[in-house]
Amino acid sequence: MSPQPQQRQLETEPLLYTRYADWWPLLSAPEEYEEDAALYHEIICSHSPRPPRTLLELGSGGGNTASFLKQHYAITLCDRSEPMLAVSRKLNPTCAHLQGDMRTIRLAHQFDIVFIHDAIGYMATPADLQAALRTAYQHCNPGGIALFVPDYTAEVFRPATYHGGHDGNGASMRFLQWDHDPVPGDGQYQVDFAYLLRPAGAVRPEVSGETHICGLFSKTEWLKWMRAAGFKATSDTIETDQLEPGMYRVFIGIKRD
Q: What are the C-alpha distances in Å from 132 to residues 137, 157, 217, 223, 226?
């Protein structure tokens, strides 16, 4: 019998969400999230048994998606990185912000919607993902909806590279992102980042890089673990003119009344 693949886990918080958190708006500008936020709002409305009013976002990061969803819902934002919450507070001053880990946080109240965007990818093991699903279930009102948006499922993953960045207030940032799977079949993939950061007035940029480890699970596993958490679970794909058909899958959970 061949040995089971060793699952990888980073020992420290990513620099992107700690040391470089202030650079987040130059790496990932809020305006880039408008179309996606409209799609998520449409999905929520089409699956909610009744009109939702309150939303908890877990792993909310810099608050870019919330900056558009807040026109529809009263939003509470939760992230384990205090520096990223500080960025979000500037963008979303009317939203409540809480520090906490999506695997373990327990609040005293429930919400019509629990939303986890691509931060769900940092649930790098089955135990991590199942814990986050239980958290979402615990914070849904009866009849409420949970929406999970992973970057990949195992069926559609393939290596990809991305680059981007922005200028603002005299500073500039550029990045290169490489998504790949160095150990196929271990339920994880790897995201390698390279950063170029030029503060205002600087001649040469700071050069840095790091690796992020993310979970890679099948549609069948997602649905099984959502049902185990208590949800009525279903899945759908996001289809737009800009997206490749069938590549981007969301998972919807309904908490029964």
A: 9, 22, 14, 14, 10
pLDDT at 238: 81
User: If you classify domain 160-214 with CATH, what class do you get?
Assistant: mainly beta
- The number of angstroms, rounded, from the C-alpha of 8 to the middle of its chain's C-alpha atoms is 19
* Joined tokens for residue 133: 């699903």
Homologous superfamily in CATH for domain 15-153+217-254: Vaccinia Virus protein VP39 (3.40.50.150)
Tens of pLDDT, residue by residue over 140-154, are 999 999 999 999 999
Neighbours of 78 (CB within 10 A): 23
Token pair 């960045």 is found at: 165
Query: Low-confidence residues of the chain, pLDDT below 70?
Result: 1-11, 240-243, 246
Report pLDDT digits (tens) over 89-110: 999 999 999 999 999 999 999 9
Nearest to 119 by CA among 78, 180, 70: 78
**Token code pair at residue 117:** 């965007």
Phi-psi region of 103 (alpha: psi -120 to 50; beta: other; left: phi over 0): alpha
Q: What are phi and psi of 71, to 5 degrees?
A: -75, -15
pLDDT at 189: 98
Residue 182 tokens read as 């160095």
Answer yes or no: are the C-beta atoms of 58 and 116 closer than 8 Å.
yes
In the block, which residue shows the tokens 């620099």? 15
